[in-house]
Amino acid sequence: MKKIFIFATLGLAAIISSYSFKSTLSDPNPPTSNTGAPTQSRTCVRCHGDFPVNQPGGSIVATGLPLGSYVPGQAYNFSVTITNASAMQMWGFAIKAVISGTSGTALGTFSTTNPNTNVSGGEIRNSNGAVFSGTSYTFNNLIWTAPLTGSSSVSFYVAGIAADADGSEAGDFSYSNSYLNIVLPVTLGEVKGQLVDNAAIIEWSTYSESGTTNFEIERSFDGRNFEVLKSILSSGGASIIRNYKWIDNNLPKNENILFYRLKITDQNGKTEYSKVVSLKSSVITYVENIFPTLINGNELVKIKMVSNTHQSSTISVFSSTGKNVFQKVQMLNKGANDISLSGITAGGKGVYLVKITAGNYSTTKKIVVQ
Fold it and tell me: Which of 247, 293, 321, 357 measures 20 to 30 Å from 67, CA to CA?
């Protein structure tokens, strides 16, 4: 079980606490142990107190940290952006990852390829204040590597400041906020899908499911609006690899791209979504056209039909009273098919329904004999 709490103004989970950053060009390095993590409660406003904490228009955002759960041993490249309502001259940050619910025990390892940052005391921070005139600044090429073993939840604490670099601690802005994101106790592996004949096969694996109750398979035609197709109970258990497979046998006839995702729910009712898997079919079974629909006498009826595979189809004709007056089994080739029917008007004048089925596909068309 690997839970993640991200403490930042991310729309995720966060506690952002400013650190005491002396805003002079001669001493641009922030002190350690001031990220707001457990045992690190100091904030910038203690020294840089000209403005209340969290002035409108300002924030600190970490982008690229793992969402929901992390993969053991995986390296996550992320960035930290500090924004202020008005232009400032110097920027700095610090971030720490700890085991959730502890007094600050570090979890995972930080590294960086950004020359203006370093790793010290289990946290990553700027090694030189970023001198830049503007309303925001981003520190890129920061890396957090998840632990190889264990199932501890992780909390990230990030802190930042926007300074005017006038040689004093006055006129600087600090930010602090707190959000708590309770994420699911599931470590999700690969989610994949494939189209086979007239079905979509969705497969996924988990490394841990402790506390997870069920998985819902959702489908969309546009990648935005999803509907639930199936709910599958979790097998439960921690540190056990489990594999799942579900088959969607009811594919729509005129959709070339299908989107699938998992909705994961824990025992507290909290939910998380997997990545979206898109499946594209170059050919889908459907009737393109039937003509004519207004028939005189023994005129031939022609059907243009596309099939996604080599298969048989059944063509049935019913009178307005429901009587089956015509039926034929027609073999279809993969791709376009032209079908000609004769003798379907033997029942005389009236309205008829032509039902065409092939695999999981079925459609009904109306014709009129005059």
Answer: 247
